[in-house]
Amino acid sequence: MIKVGDTLPSATLMEFSEVEGNGCSIGPNAVEVSTATAGKTIAIFGLPGAFTPTCSAKHVPGYLDGFSDFKAAGVDEVWCISVNDAFVMGAWAREQKSDGKIRMLADGSAALAQATGLTLDLTSRGMGLRSTRYSMWVKDGKVMSLNIEGPGKFEVSDAATLLAQIKG
């Protein structure tokens, strides 16, 4: 399992944008993790699924509400990663009104979740292999802090906890 001090593994995520701009076509577009994190400070939070109750009501809204605080703390980008396809993540971004704040990135085949060891098997609930709920602070591809939730919990991966670690 990935830990503080490790470099994020190579993986390709997918992103769907509603409008073209800054070199991004409507998509979906590939986002190579190692390239996209190079030279940047990124707040990442992973979650089991788009449109699920805790993810939609608490996890994403917390990062949206704290977006300006993350920017003020030196964070270049905020990423939300889930094992969904890029079209679902794009629709969820529209529903959450996250455009221009949170990059909603799809890990459709759970490649990044598996490479980091941050998987959650929800097969018994009809959802298959997913990402566990977590947050991490990444600087130039290196994990500076990592907060992994226990099953069914939402206690340490929230925006306030990660922001305090970044500011700390």
Number of helical runs? 6
Give the strand tally.
9
CATH topology grouping = Glutaredoxin
The CATH superfamily name is Glutaredoxin
What percent of residues adopt helix (DSSP H or I)? 25-40%
Topology:
Layout (H helix, E strand, L loop, with lengths): L11 E4 L13 E4 H5 L3 E7 L5 H13 L1 H6 L4 E6 L3 H11 L5 E5 L4 H6 L2 E4 L5 E4 L2 E6 L2 E7 L10 H9 L1
Parallel strand pairs: 3-4, 4-5
Antiparallel strand pairs: 1-2, 3-8, 6-7, 8-9
In short:
This protein is an alpha/beta fold and 168 residues long. It has helices spanning 33-37, 53-65, 67-72, 86-96, 111-116, 159-167, and strands at 12-15, 29-32, 41-47, 77-82, 102-106, 119-122, 128-131, 134-139, 142-148. The longest helix is centred in the middle third of the chain and has 13 residues, at 53-65.
